[in-house]
Amino acid sequence: MSHLIFDAGPLITVCRFSVADRLVIDYILQRCEITVALSVRDEVVIAGASYPDAQAARQRVERGQIAVLTPPSDPGLETQIALYGLGAGERDSILLTEHIDLEGATLVIDDHLAYLVSDRLGRQKRFLLDVIVYLVNAGELDKDLAIEMVDAVRTRYPPAFVEHTMLLLRG
Amino acid sequence: MLERPISQFVDRQSRERNVSPQQTVAELIFLGFETLLQKLYSRYRRGEISFGRLAQELGVTTWDLSHLLEERGWPTYNLPSLA
What we know:
- The structure holds two protein chains of two kinds.
- Chain A is α/β, with parallel strands linked by helices.
- Helix content of chain A is 55%, strand content 14%.
- Chain A has a single domain (2-170), classed as 5'-nuclease (Rossmann fold), CATH 3.40.50.
- Chain A has helices at residues 8-16, 24-29, 38-47, 52-62, 75-82, 88-96, 112-120, 128-137, 143-152, 159-170, and strands at residues 2-6, 18-19, 22-23, 32-37, 66-69, 106-108, 125-126.
- In chain A, a hairpin with a 2-residue loop joins β2 and β3 (22-23).
- In chain A, α1 crosses α4.
- Chain A is globular.
- Chain A starts with a strand and ends with a helix.
- By secondary structure, chain B is an all-alpha fold.
- Chain B has one domain (4-71).
- Chain B has four helices and no strands.
- Chain B has helices spanning 4-17, 21-45, 51-58, 62-71.
- In chain B, α1 (4-17) crosses α2 and α2 (21-45) packs antiparallel against α3.
- The interface between A and B is medium-sized, with 35 and 24 residues.
């Protein structure tokens, strides 16, 4: 089972959109372990009362389906990340890839700048769309279901990214 | 305490539109927020700042920001797209 570290952006996406009356996050949770940084969890808790998607995330955190971890202290890495002025959740999600329990985990991040920063730092990362493609290629997710999932979240990505993903899936 | 040109503007606007100074100030704050949002959002779409940073600058959570952008019909992503 793949281990994924979700930044807030893709977490919102998977908690917001559904396929066949089931949230996308539940399809992912069935196949992957998901961990979020403490700061991402805090945002879920703060916003949890206001929005149904945040409530969905909060419920899964409270049930222990989404693990929450504090990123390890790494002053050198923190200094490098600070140069880019990322938000706390993005910074902590990148730092979390250093956690001893998350060796081999993939950071799921959809923000342009945060993706570039994690790339420059040599982190293993994927866009959420590529996680879906990966699960299909690994034989863990049905192709037709994956196409429905991509279609469900299409408003969260530029059209070219969505159409490229569809081409990869229909291959 | 508002600076003199601003207080004069508020007084004149309130008289001309027959609304309270408080309402005029509230409208100005709304306009100021929208202007700041548009300015920061442009930077976000150009990939100069991240989604989390945009939320922090506006003093909202990423969840708030996601909904705020959608309410305006603005894309929530900043990945490159064709014009």
